[in-house]
Amino acid sequence: MKIIIVGTGYVGLPHAAVCAESGHEVYAYDIDEKRINAYKTGERKAIESYVNEPGLAAAIKETIDRYLFFTTDLASIIEGVDAVFMCLNTPPQRDGSSDLSYLSSAARDLGRALASREEKKRVVIVNKSTVPIGTARFVENILREEGAENFGVASNPEFLAQGNAVEGSRRPDRIVIGADTEEDFTILRRVYSQFVNHVRIQYLETTPETSESIKYMANSLLLTYISYWNGVGARLAESFDNIRMEDLKRGVTADSRISTWGSYVSNGAGGSCFGKDIQSLMYQLKTAGQNTDLLQSVYNINEYQKTYLVDRAIHEAGFNFNKKTVTILGLAFKKRTNDMRDSAALNAVETLLSKGVKEIRAYDPLATEPAQNYWFNPEKNYLFERITYHDTPRAALEGSDAVYISTDWEEFRGISRTIQTTVTPPYLVIDGRRMVPDYMSLVETGYDYLPVGGNLLRKA
Ligand code: UGA
Fold it and tell me: 249: domain CATH number?
């Protein structure tokens, strides 16, 4: 099949590489020339400076110039195309609705290119990024206005988690296709031939609107699990003596009807998807006149969780942040990514600074540069001056009065030794990820330990 991928970010690039691996002729198109030139080199560093996903650079290297081609010239690749995947950003707007301007401008360019085809063979345009219900029709109208002929618009949402995009694309749980005609389903069955009739992969064909809804339902339910554990499970263990969080998790999730995913209590879920998608779903339901109390609570609990440990440090541990130095370990929204979008660390740092912290000493194995860029934002310059970045956890800990563990990087599991050999009590360890298995050794040597999902521990 001849496939075009429009948009080469976190969704488009892994999809392009994995489609090319399965032997299709894939053209990855983007209007950003710098990005395309970086990908064309086939070099790991250049690729990872845009999309950092395990296995991605290797997959591109394997297929580039044989099955996978990069271009900024849509007209030159349009002839004979079978399927076009639209993988564009749909950022949230203030009211929660999705900004479809990137998608619509790409659809206009595509519509013009399709109109110029010599042979008007059937082509399916597929919305792969998360888009509001009804967007397949919206794209269809744009393409028609631009003169495109003999096409269908389908929905095929992406369910991948960051850090697992390549493996996840090779072995997805399900493929969901929403289309209107048998002709379009047939084309997409050929694109995904390795997954049709697969024993372990659900291959679901439905309407475009159902397919669009599946993505919103799935992400909002995943965030509901997290908010249930953060807002109820962790709260229980923090309110009563002698509740063991890990046992609570094990006991509840031993029921085969209850998911274990989401039971990892944390300082709030971040990333570019959950917050955006649940807000968009609320907006869509409200617009349809529906009540969104449940979703609103899930969202609020998650946002509250991102700053709540700072409040607990003040009220439960009696810690006064004014003029103190605080180390933050982890800036990314989760381990194995440099992505800081909606990261709980952003809320923590801003709250800490608002409480009068003199200096924030930050460490993250991957996200220092994105953090510097974010906080170098001229509007936020006053924050920038009070944040310093360090190459190791030890360097970040030096001279601080408290540490806040924000990201679940595996390397933090051994942090209690580094703490004990770098800073001396009185000292507060705030653990937003339950990352310190030997926390009792900290407590016994006089450090205060305040974990999510547990009471403050302090030497008697
Ligand atoms: C999420 C979904 O998991 C994917 O299924 C979906 O396709 C994707 O959004 C998307 O819409 O593109 P992602 O944002 O990459 O994937 O990250 P997750 O691994 O789901 O983690 C999200 C946040 O929840 C992280 O901050 C993570 O640390 C946190 N989390 C996760 C918890 O706090 N507790 C948990 O038990 C699990």
Answer: 1.10.1040.10
Q: Under 8 Å CB-to-CB from 448, ≥6 apart: which residues? A: 317, 319, 425, 426, 427, 428, 429, 456, 457, 458
CA separation for the pair 146, 406 (Å, rounded): 48
pLDDT classification of 376: cutoffs 50, 70, 90: confident
Distance of alpha carbon 396 from alpha carbon 414, whole angstroms: 15
In this structure, the answer to whether residues 351 and 416 fall within a common structural domain is yes
| 273 catalytic per annotation | yes
Average pLDDT over residues 62-66: 97
Q: Which of 88, 273, 371, 403 is catalytic?
A: 273
The Cα-based distances of 347 to 146, 150, 190, 270, 292 in angstroms read 44, 49, 45, 10, 25
CATH number, domain at 160? Answer: 3.40.50.720
Distance 363 CA to ligand 1 centre (A): 22
Residues 229 and 106 reside in one and the same domain: no
Segment 194-211 shows an average pLDDT of 96
Segments forming the whole domain that contains residue 249 = 216-303
Identify the bridge partners of residue 152 per DSSP, sorted by sequence position.
Answer: 124
Q: Tell me the pairing of strands 2-6 and 202-206.
A: unpaired
User: Where among 257, 287, 303 does a domain terminate?
Assistant: 303
Q: Are 407 and 340 in contact (CB under 8 A)?
A: no
Does residue 429 sit in the same domain as residue 377? Answer: yes
Residue 27, number of CB atoms within 10 A of its CB: 23
Phi and psi, residue 427, nearest 5°: -155, 140
Residue 362 burial (CB count, 10 A): 25
Q: What angle do CA 105, 106, 112 make, to 5 degrees?
A: 95
pLDDT band at 380 (very low <50, low <70, confident <90, very high): low
Among 456, 458, 452, smallest CA distance to 233 is for 452
CA of 277 to the centre of ligand 1 (A): 12
Task: Examine residue 197 and state whether it is found in any structural domain, yes or no.
Answer: yes
Contact residues of ligand 1, CB 6 A cut-off: 130, 158-162, 219, 222, 226, 261-264, 266, 269-271, 273-274, 333-334, 408
- Both 81 and 144 in one domain: the answer is yes
pLDDT band at 383; cut points 50, 70, 90: low
Mark which of 276, 303, 330 sits at the end of a domain. 303
Q: Do both 251 and 340 map to the same domain?
A: no
pTM, two decimals, is: 0.95
Beta bridge partners of 69: 27
Residues 354 and 299 in one domain: no
Residue 88 lies in a domain: yes
- Is the residue at 254 inside a domain? yes
